[in-house]
Specification:
By secondary structure, this protein is α/β, with parallel strands linked by helices. It contains ten helices and 17 strands. The strands form three sheets. It has a nine-stranded mixed sheet. Strands 3-2-1-4-5-6 form a six-stranded parallel sheet, sandwiched between helices. A two-stranded antiparallel ribbon has the order 8-9. The chain is globular and about 65 Å long. The two termini are 40 Å apart. 44% of the residues are buried. The mean pLDDT is 95.
Length: 396
């Protein structure tokens, strides 16, 4: 196919960004849009140059039944995102999904087995793994410069205001907590009910850490502050949730996330890796640089390195695409996988390895910080491709 006929599901902030970007990335043609909030439909159409050729849907099943699209760009923020991805695969559509991939282990397994049965492409549009410094860090680890990595950590303590937590569902307009007295029509959004740890570490930082380590998590324990938020009591979410993990290669990993407490924008993402021969870490503020230290190089202190989000080898079409130019890559890789059959860097198994530790961390929190196993999603002797695992082992 010359162009992938793309349908965009979910027309909020990220959906609009995808609509703008896919009109610039070669190989795509938007043919349909879906959202149950009608004003958002019109807003989305206003961003499409060829809007008269685009079908509009207010019901997801009608959208999936449209035979004028080859793939679904899933930009929804709700607990059913994993089930919606599976439904699209079962309807014969390729799927490129915004993060997180799913909120339940059952949905993770459904996506995996659907891909195995259908041969369709499922891609998780997780962009941080394409940042330039990530490949630089991966090379240092692969080359043994840091020795054996014994400890790693990442955090996503973001602060985007409180606007995303309240919305007028008739107009689609969002309001911060401070505006609620003047806007009684604003209702709590689904973010009040979504586990912070899944939307946080399961979205970006877990993917980045696992790529650098070339590893997967096998066990996790989670802990959380109480609900509601201490910072904004009108928000019924925990301020902080944290997970302690063990990987298959015997690395201990700590992951931290929270979205309701004010933070300087420059340090809402942070990572470090400690090995037997050295360490590396990201910057803590906008006036700093990332740092590295090698034990056998006569270094008495950390050395700053000009690692950045932007890649030094980025093509011109990647510049300005978003998230440090990384948004281009998730769409280029998906396009090449669908049109040319090229393997995805983040295939369905690695995608589930990214989200499953976060889901199991939340399960651990619910169970009083009980240790939880994380499954290997690859088929094997105990699970033939295309079949669900035995019920007794599905959640572990």
């Amino acid at each position: 196919m010359d162009e992938i006929r793309m349908g965009i599901a979910g027309l909020g902030h990220r959906g609009l960004h995808w609509i703008r970007l896919l009109q610039k990335v070669p190989g795509y043609r938007i043919t349909a849009v879906y959202d149950w909030i009608e004003p958002l439909q019109e807003r989305a159409l206003g961003e499409i140059v060829y809007r008269d050729d685009v079908k509009v849907f207010g019901h997801y099943q009608d959208f999936l039944a449209f035979d004028g699209m080859d793939a679904v760009g899933l930009c929804v923020r709700q607990k059913e995102v994993g089930a919606m991805a599976a439904q699209a695969l079962e309807a014969g559509k390729h799927v490129n999904s915004e993060v997180p991939a799913a909120y339940t282990m059952a949905d993770c397994w459904r996506i995996v087995t659907d891909v195995e049965r259908t041969g369709l492409v499922y891609s998780l549009a997780e962009q941080t793994r394409f940042w330039g410094f990530v490949d630089g860090w991966r090379k240092l680890v692969d080359d043994g410069m840091l020795g054996r990595i014994t400890y790693a950590e990442g955090q996503y303590v973001g602060w985007y205001g409180t606007r995303q937590y309240f919305q007028d569902f008739k107009t689609g307009k969002q309001y911060p907590v401070e505006a609620l007295p003047d806007h009684p029509e604003a209702e709590p959004t689904v973010l009040h009910t979504l586990p912070t740890i899944i939307g946080g570490i399961g979205s970006h930082d877990m993917s980045l850490v696992l790529k650098v380590l070339d590893d997967r998590v096998v066990e996790v324990v989670g802990m959380s502050t109480k609900e509601p938020s201490y910072a904004w009591p009108r928000i019924s979410c925990s301020d902080i949730q944290v997970a302690l993990m063990k990987t298959e290669k015997d690395t201990v990993v700590r992951m931290l996330c929270g979205f309701t407490q004010p933070r300087p924008h420059g340090d809402h993402h942070w990572w470090q890796f400690i090995g037997t021969k050295g360490s590396m870490e990201w910057r803590r503020s906008l006036h700093e640089k990332p740092k590295v230290w090698f034990a056998d190089a006569q270094m008495n202190d950390w050395a700053e390195v000009d690692w950045q989000y932007q890649r030094t080898d980025a093509p011109s079409e990647a510049r300005g695409s978003g998230h440090g130019d990384a948004d281009y890559y998730v769409h280029a890789h998906f396009r090449d996988a669908v049109r040319e059959g090229k393997p995805l860097e983040l295939d369905v198994y690695r995608a589930m390895e990214t989200i499953a530790p976060a889901i199991r961390a939340f399960d651990s929190i619910v169970e009083g910080s009980k240790p939880m196993g994380v499954p290997d999603f690859h088929p094997g002797a105990d699970r033939p491709a295309g079949q669900m695992p035995a019920e007794r082992s599905r959640e572990c």
